[in-house]
Specification:
rod-shaped; three-stranded antiparallel β-sheet; alpha+beta
Amino acid sequence: MASRVSKLHPIPFARLLSHGLTPLPSRALCTAMETQTQKLERIASELLDLTKLEKRDFGILFRRKMGLSQYGPAVSDLESSGSSGPASAETPKVAEKTVFDLKLEKFDAAAKIKIIKEIRGFTSLGLKEAKDLVEKAPVVVKNGLSKEEGNAIVEKLKELGATAALE
């Protein structure tokens, strides 16, 4: 005699507890979990039937749909909207600026020649280009400076009678 046994898939205990359920599910819950399990088994078997190239494409598509990239997870809307949780308890860290632009704001007319020479010293400009640049003040003189380099140049320009700032 062949006995007929109902095939119920085991439900993870932690999953049941996280939903506030007891380990002894009701009949309706068993049916819902069984259909969900059948769906997952169907998806898993379809994934196993894919070729290598299709699996690779699926992996890329799945990561995009989940908001992930090769560089790590994307910032979700929940974290940025101030949801209650450990992410919102921390204050957002502001990235400290490491690259600055040197801007010549104004200069003393008597020190114009000295300022042009100084600008030629830290740029690769010719005499005419440096003169034209100084006369356009306020203007960005040099891009991509570190804070130390920029502060040293600003101090030199201030000694010569110019007003310069790092942006």
